[in-house]
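Table S2 (text version). Query chain:
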Amino acid sequence: MLGLFLKILYVLKSQVKNKIISIVIPTFNEQNNISGIIDQLLKLDITYEIEIIVVDDNSIDGTAAFVREFSRIDRRVRLIIRMGRSGLSSAIKEGCLCASGEVIAVMDADGQHDPIYIEKALNELEKNKVDILVGSRFIEGSKIKGLSKRRERSSSIANYLARLSLYGFYNHLTDYMSGFILFKRNSCIKFIEKIDVNGFKFFYELLALSKGKLKVIEIPLVFKERIYGNSKLDLPVVWDFLISLIHSFIRRIIPRRAVSFALVGSTGVVVQLLTIYFFMMATSFDFEQVLPVGVVIAASSNFTINNFFTFRTNKLSGKRFYFGLMKFLLVSSLPIIANIGITTLFYSQLSINSFISQIVGILVVFIWNYAASSKIVWNN
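Corresponding structure-token output:
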């Protein structure tokens, strides 16, 4: 009788454990942090089977090799090494699309998210019957350790701007930049598939795409101090945030990368004006003589900034940088004639206002430059 009871208990326990939670951890040079995180996750006593997916952007510190050894010991650990691809949002998206769990969790690899929160988050996700649960650093019960006051203020400002850019959707949230989230695969996967891999933050992009169609709650999170390694917050990350905000404010009517390309183009206008001004002040050349110099310098500036920000996942270096610059200058020069022709056509032949005619010409040139640059200059 006792044997039968134990057998039934084992079957019931096995059925409960059939549910899987996939924990996606994006990494880049996190060898000293990842070992402790994986070890703690594997020791969690929860009703779900655990699947850990480490998505590594070809780390140079041995992170991938270390995780590979872990995966040989424990089959619950999986490793994805990305060659020629990089970026936090794209790494998370790739991990989520490869996950087999009904519930998917995302957490950072720097040790600032304590693995013990997985159990609490999972319980709250099920109890409240929501689609997404996010760990917030800014609600009662939360705490931020090891973050400067300046970084805290920056995070608060970023969250305020993110809330504005979502046009009233998910107004109840306090932390749109959180890297600790749990979500139900069935309700979120259709939005995840559409996430722009060049986006700033995975969670923010998911909210922007879902437009209030998902139920989201927050739990307080203790944000721990990073012990090893360096923060990945840098100038390109700040640029990505700015582009994401603009992209959302304009209701995503054009590709996100095109927004970046246009913003870089606006800096080129300033560079050209300043170049012409200083050359005319410092030399005896007149405007017509200086104009070609200003145009080339402005175009070269646009190419360099686009290479560093807009197309950094296809970044050109060494000889390829200079070859790409030549192609960019050629690509940029071709539509000048088209711009003049189109503007003239709209103004003289179709009797359209001169301002509108110029806007049409500029728009055509922009579309050409963006498309040609994407397909010819940075198509590697």
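Notes on Table S2: The two ends are 68 Å apart (CA to CA). The first strand starts at residue 20 and ends at 27.
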